[in-house]
Task: structure prediction
Amino acid sequence: FFLGEVMVSLRVLTLNCWGLVYLSKHRASRYEHIANYLAEGKHDIVALQEVWSKDDYRKLKKRVSTVLPHSRYFYSGVIGSGLCVFSVWPIEEIAFDPFQVHGPPYKVWEGDWMGGKGMAMCVIRHPQHGLLHFFTTHMVADYCCDGIDPNQSHRVCQAFQTVKFIQRHHPRFTIICGDFNATPHSPSYNLISSYGQLTDAWLEVSGTDSEKGHTCDMPENIYSPYRRRKGKRIDYVFYSTAKSESMVLKCQSSEVTLGQVPHTKIFYSDHSAVTAEFEFVRREDVEDSQPEALPVNSVAIAEQLTSMGLQTANNRRQQQMVGFLFFLSMWITLTAFSWFPHILSVISFDSIGVEIFALSSPLVGILQSTAAILGFMFALMALIVSQIEIYKLTQLRQEMKVVCELNCQK
Result:
């Protein structure tokens, strides 16, 4: 179709749907409104995050099948990746790269470690311009409210892994969107934009980071857990074109949409959606307007943050080692002392009081020993998981160091 006198070749939307089963408010009705909106056919490719239920995905797929007939749902981890993609054009290839680190493993209540978050890729065949590599992701969340982000080291590792995943596929045309849980010019954002040499669609069109671009923690959103805040921008559409291509992607417009559902009191999600409209133009027509790639010092900053995260993980492992030894010693002590009175009663006194204590002590001993064993097993599991986390953080830090060294040699 035509936007004024400019032909729009590609229309993209990304939305975090907030689809936690049993926990997200008004999930069924919100998903119905999301499906109805997508069924209007305003977009060529749609990326959704936090679609944790496969049944929700099936309902969405059925509702939008006439306008977005091609789709993929990405399975991963214990409760899934939550990622799915819908497209008007055929999806010829898919891939999924799970993140090596998923947030602190001991924070089970946050859910990031339980979820199989990662990078999803769909290779889509555009009818005029051939293969397009479309990526979507959902990075580890920022649960802090006092300005200190304990998950920052894990997020920069995920951003680094994301860029490496994209580079590994050598795409001609790249679009990556999703919930990055990173504000503009944060270390993770800089890693994506500078090291990945990807253009922020909203920033390219608007030219500024105004409140109009905020997508989360909006004070008017009834689902926002931090409504006292002014909001923040953490959902993005990034894009790039390989230097060898004569035609390049150019963003014509980008906006934040899908706030409050019309004629209702509910919102589509606790996030707003981000849309971007692109056209394919000749490289010589836009070469001067394209932003220059920033230096790769963002990788050095990410490496420093990863080192800090590694130090924190090591400290946590030491604490868990103390817990492991505590439960082990408690298990041995309780097991020994719970059976000791029973043994004495058998070989010495035959009084009523002793006999009653002797009969009850094995049951008490079993219960105490079971509790100690459960604590011991939990501490052992936490210790193993922390060791895996440290190993993966060390690997990623080494990769970042290699990138920094190669950049210094150039």
